[in-house]
From TrEMBL:
Keyword Transmembrane helix: yes
Protein name: Cytochrome P450
Pfam family, one: p450
GO molecular function: heme binding; iron ion binding; monooxygenase activity; oxidoreductase activity, acting on paired donors, with incorporation or reduction of molecular oxygen
Transmembrane region(s): 6-24
SUPFAM superfamilies assigned: Cytochrome P450 (SSF48264)
Amino acid sequence: MDNERLLVSTFGVFAAAYVISNLYRTWVERRQLDKIPTVGPSGALSSYLGVYNLVFNGRDMIQKGYNKYRGGMFKIPGISKWTIVVAGPNMVDELRRAPDDLLSSMEAAADLIQMDYTIGPEIRLDPYHVAIVQSSLTRNLVECFPDVQDEIATAFAEHIPATEGRNLDYRTLNIDFTMNVVKAAIILNLFPNFLKPLAGRLLTKVPSSIKRAMMHLEPTINERLRQEEEHGKDWPGKPASLRHDSPLTTFTQVLFDLAARPSYVAALREEVEGVIREEGLTKVSLQKMRKLDSFIKESQRFGGGGARMVTMHRKVMKDFTFSDGTVVPKGHSIAVANFALHHDQVS
């Protein structure tokens, strides 16, 4: 009996300590967050209205915060956590240099597109594709140039004017899948965490999309696995990297901007043809196309990545302290006021 009482007492002490620890942590976190100015309502209930306002008037909210807190930071509400928006170049650099175990871009992306409920948790738990892009694909970019050049020429011939693509269903699948994930993520971010599994099952089209994709990819995957089993990992004719058929958003935006500003065509064409004539189409020759590089950067600043309200999303894995002493608590997100910063006449 005494042992049972001792056990109950011990459990009660640990439970009380756990509750007190959580309350203290919440109090400290609240004090840290209160030091960061808020754009939009910040009350326990009114902040939910700020989330919906962000969906419909996000750019105005971010711009208002940037104008008021330029060089510093401010916070905007989420359903369960805050997003701290950086509004100065120095802090952007601190954000860029922070290690992934402190500020994680992968975890931020998973939250942003609600990966567990739209694509599935497997990609978040085993991001094998990141290593492929950073190593195998990047190392073999030069070998991809002929394929890329052939694909561009074919795409122009097929789509300007538009006709059926090489594999219309597969291309449509790629485009629709991306849009479906983005749409579902926007909606899911409006739900509290406990409702997201149900909303994800009702809203996502991932299972049917994967089934369609496997109809196209399974024969190729099985053939490559057979070749590897029969001849080893370095089997004859093994592709150096994966072919990429989908049009790139960057290229599309550049094409639109070039069509809207035909006066730039002659100078860009002269530069590209001159470099290719002397160097050929290589990775090194692309670096010598400075006018083209400048045009692409400006195109992105105005209409591509530069047009996004915020970028460089990071999830705070451990309490993070900026050089000015501002502490962002674990679990919240940090991002950069991208559009405002890129269109600031002062900075």
